[in-house]
Amino acid sequence: MDGDRRHLLLWFFAAATAVKLLLIPSYRSTDFEVHRNWLAITHSLPLSEWYFDETSQWTLDYPPFFAYFERFLSFFARLLDPKIVDLHKGLDYSADSVVYFQRITVIFSDLCLLLGVYRLTRKVETLKRNLICVLVVWSPGLLMVDHVHFQYNGFLLGWLLLSVSFLQDGRDLIGGFLFAVVLCFKHLFAVAAPVYFVYLLRHYCWAGLATGLRRLVALGSVVVAVFAAAFGPFIYNGQIQQVISRMFPFGRGLCHAYWAPNFWVFYIMLDKGLAFTLRKLGFDVQVPSASFTGGLVGDSSPFAVLPQITPLTTFVMVLLAITPCLIKAWKKPQPGLVARWIAYAYTCGFLFGWHVHEKASLHFTIPLAIVAVQSLEDAKHYFLVSIVSCYSLFPLLYEPQEYPIKVLLLLLHSMVMWLGFTALYSDEKALKKEGGEIKSKFEMGCIEKGYLIGLVLVEIVSQFLHPYFLGDRYAFMPLMLISTYCAVGIMYSWIWQLLKILT
Amino acid sequence: MPKKNLSGDGTAAPIDTWWWLSHKGTTTSFLCISLFALLIRSAVSMFPYSGAGTPPKFGDFEAQRHWMEITTNLPAIDWYRNGTHNDLTYWGLDYPPLTAYQSYIHGLLLRFFNPDSVSLFSSRGHESYIGKLLMRWTVLSSDALIFFPAALFFVLVYHRNRAKSQVAWHIAIILLNPCLILIDHGHFQYNCISLGLTVGAIAAVLCGSEVLTCVFFTLALSHKQMSAYFAPAFFSHLLGKCLRRKNPILSLLKLGIAVIATFVIVWWPYLHSVDDFLMVLSRLAPFERGIYEDYVANFWCTTSILIKWKKLFTTPSLKFMSLAATVLASLPSMVHQIFSPSNEGFLYGLLNSSMAFYLFSFQVHEKSILMPFLAATLLALKIPDHFNHLTYYALFSMFPLLCRDNLLLPYLTLHLLFTLIYHSQLPKTKASSFSFTNFPGYVFLLRTHFVISLVLHVVYLTIQPPQKYPFLFDALIMILCFSYFVMFAIYTNYTQWNFSSHFRSADKEKKQI
């Protein structure tokens, strides 16, 4: 039986790999050149210069473990084609060798994701396990971001899922260790650190004075060891300041060029709306000189009416939003709820964070997939949030060649989800009768259905009606429309998750 | 909870792992699988097309673009005629009028979005991002609008009275036809239209509506003359059915009128004079190109290694010989259908007649394997093991062509995808009285074939052929595929012929599927 299970997981992975292989010649974003440059930096330069090199504008801004990972990959890159890892000659290199090499490394690194899913679903029953596998391994968002746009999210999320699987098994030390490893790969995952901290403290270390203290020391030393392995060489070289400044660049604004569908979209819209109304009423409202996407320019604020938002404000807001979850985790730390809390933490980070990319929505949709099969309400919620987050990724692939692919990925995902969930929540007796009309309890509410149909309308307006009627004028409007509409869905998801955690 | 089947002795039969995908009925599973099929097609479309970046002649892509240019700029009567604006030596139209009409409609679309790609003369060799995209989307839309609905029609009719557990597998096999995807969406052609119309005709036969069959099949013939590969099967089956009616002459007349009416409507611009009609016909049958071209795994090309047909015989005598051979090869299956027509026998008949044409006809191309392969996908549930091997060798016979088009990665990926789908749910076959596996050397023969083919894959890609024989490896691939196709044809002909003996022994009143 176990062999069958493994075969099926491998089958899902192989089917996804077939699609990923066919996506190799598709559009690549600048992230492709970023990673190629990192291959070159880590290969051609000594460790002491990794975080100082500025040959290319795409400087190293991930923590050291990711740099070591690139170093490992660069060994194979050089065997294939030395020009890939050449610091100067390899700039903007786009021959077949580098494209195939990098794309295939992403496909291979997705094995990490498969491992995470495998460990997580060991004790789950067949249909639920297959569904989780489909939702994670065949996630359209992951395919679009990792295998077209180009990133290594599958690899990183695999580590996160492994960590969650160990926590769910009650093996907290390893879970904590793996989370520290993830942090040293990409510091963006630190948003869930408070949850880990509170949970591990309460669940692992709260066991009587002697055992508790011993465990606390064990956990602490494991985490310190991981950080030492990552940052040690740089602390030794006295470069830690430079590394930190590269990892946390504060020259960026509140929003990315394309606004991620988070809370700040509403804040900005409110500010613009108020400014407009007040101007009409005769008040003198200055047009702000700074922009949302640019950096903090001295004291000037990009907001006309409402108070300025600083990175500190966003930090405090994220922490405040996570607090109810932390309280729950402190009061009653249950292994079964860890995935939910972590997903919630990443949702808060997405909604209230500073300079959030829309790609960050993957950080909460993937962990939520594990939770989605646990109850009917979870399934309905996941159906909505995964479609919204996938749709919000559409503007990333803006070239016409990828248009059918992204639309078909989303439609296919929705259909498979719908079929899977209706099968999961169907009347058992009806199933036993072959050919009987199977009535399912999985039925979306009117508002949700209306919202999803609205998504289709938003797409028609932004993709077809806007260019047809307005051409190039107001080019920001379609993106703004998509951001705002998706932000509504994500806010709804946040509130729903919060209520679910509190009750 | 998934269904569990418990057989009599208490051991649990394998749980049907895909029930959750197909529990909402055939049409819903079809929709789901067709979304995936369209996704695969869109992804393959990103790869190069035939003749990409190879002036002055380019390839099939340029031919299709040129036809759009000709049909949108010239009146219909001039499309097949050599003239100042229409130089027939540069990719002249060599398919029947329905292809021309389809090129016209697509040409209008291209002209609306990218006029430079279809402007008379100046657009020769036009290659651009948006031009390629629009052309690819015309194939994608033709597939979605013609092939997919026809496949749905077929699946609904074929699985009417069968257990529903294998519908999804069959749909996936039909829609994810690797040869069709690679040729239509990779190399670039519009086989999906004629094959779709043919599938529609086949479904109409299974449904019992023969007039519809005639209409669809005539349309298919009017799109690509290669659809004639299936003509003996249609003809013999319909003849057999009509002969069993109360008034055979009337039934035949009805069908004849349907064929003629459709034909007249489609060919109307060219029926005003005999000259016009013959002008089109001469374009459809380019006998001067010889009995074979390149290295195709059929009888004439393979045996030409030993018997130099082109040197020993003149073209007219070769024409006669190939006609005779083709008729002889398709005769058993035709005779069988005339005397005992049945739906199942009809499907075998399609496979046998198209295979006979592929093996013995005049001027066969590697791409023509699509015809027998389509018939095999429709029959896949009945001959799963043989179908598995046929897919492998059909793809392998196109391997040199795909390598020339730089479609190696899609080739390998579609092999992988097909294997995954095939093994996702192995259909259960009844043990037949005749099985090749009973023959002592068959399994060994098959295994050696497979090993040799793997070696040839690697050799073709890595080693340079010797100067004296630059096409050595192509020839080796051709021989290997030909030998498998012959074994396959023998098996399917025997099975069809054996079919009638099953009927004679079984209850005659039993309704056939």
From TrEMBL, chain A:
EC numbers: 2.4.1.-
Localization, UniProt: Endoplasmic reticulum membrane
EC class: transferase
InterPro entries: Glyco_trans_ALG6/ALG8 (IPR004856)
Gene Ontology CC terms: endoplasmic reticulum membrane
Protein family membership: Belongs to the ALG6/ALG8 glucosyltransferase family.
This protein's name: Alpha-1,3-glucosyltransferase
Organism listed in the record: Brassica campestris (Field mustard)
TrEMBL record, chain B:
Transmembrane portions of the chain: 133-155, 167-183, 195-220, 250-270, 345-362, 369-387, 407-423, 444-463, 475-494
Key words of the record: Endoplasmic reticulum, Glycosyltransferase, Membrane, Transferase, Transmembrane, Transmembrane helix
Cellular localisation: Endoplasmic reticulum membrane
Membrane topology, as annotated: Multi-pass membrane protein
Biological processes annotated in GO: dolichol-linked oligosaccharide biosynthetic process
Pathway recorded for this protein: Protein modification; protein glycosylation
Record-listed E.C. numbers: 2.4.1.-
GO molecular function: dolichyl pyrophosphate Man9GlcNAc2 alpha-1,3-glucosyltransferase activity
Entry's family note: Belongs to the ALG6/ALG8 glucosyltransferase family.
Protein name: Alpha-1,3-glucosyltransferase
Organism field: Brassica campestris (Field mustard)
UniProt lineage: Eukaryota, Viridiplantae, Streptophyta, Embryophyta, Tracheophyta
